[in-house]
Amino acid sequence: MSQSAEKVEFDTSRWLEALASRREVLLKLGWGGIVAFVFGSIVSTCRLFFPRTLFEPPSRFKVGWPEEFQPGTVNTQFQEKYRVWIVRREDRTFFAIKAECTHLGCTPNWLDSQKKFKCPCHGSGFRSSGVNFEGPAPRPLDRVKISLAADGQLVVDKSIVYRGIAGENPDELYPQSLLTV
Q1: Which of 26, 36, 54, 129 has the fewest CB atoms inside 10 Å of its own CB, making it the most exposed?
Q2: Residue 127: Cβ-neighbour burial (10 angstroms; 0-12, 13-18, 19+)
Q3: For the chain (length 181 residues), average pLDDT per consecutive 10?
């Protein structure tokens, strides 16, 4: 019986060693969790001092001299940066169209060969005047204010929007959206 008692004693000591090593592991995990929590709290608190800002292009900007725009063309040069098109008619009349489909806000493409704007999302079609004639777009494209600066350059102001109305000619509805140079 003494051999079995020694065996039990030996197993108990191994069990105590294993228990002690488990406690150490759990203790280290607990402290690691506390350190991770404190570090995360500090980082998120520091993040409050750096506001989330969105850098957008200005709403009022110069697009160039009137002579730089060819008569009877749609200039797509400012489509990417400012989301506007500058249209110059044969009669030296300018207007600026907001490059945003009135259906869901996609950016239509100007198809010079077909002389129309075509929305890649759902197929809305717009004439060069911005009037819709095909697809699900409920109304014409919006126009924005265009004027001459003191130095003679064209200035577009996207903060002044002339909202297109279904069935209405934007030239007659908003004569102030046109600029004759």
Answers
A1: 54
A2: middle
A3: 51 68 83 95 90 82 91 90 92 91 89 90 88 89 92 92 87 86 82
Which of 57, 178, 161, 177 has the alpha carbon at shortest distance from 100? 161
* Residue pointed to by tokens 């005047």: 129
Q: CA dist 106 to 27, 118, 119, 180, Å? A: 56, 10, 7, 29
Check: pTM over 0.70? Answer yes or no: no
The region, left, alpha or beta by phi > 0 then psi within -120 to 50, assigned to residue 115 is: left
CA distance 97 to 101: 11
Work out the burial of residue 156: count CB atoms within 10 Å of its CB; fewer than 13 is exposed, 13-18 middle, 19 or more buried.
Answer: buried
- Tokens for 143? 């126009």
Question: Cβ(170)–Cβ(130) under 8 Å?
Answer: yes
Q: Say which DSSP state 143 is in.
A: E
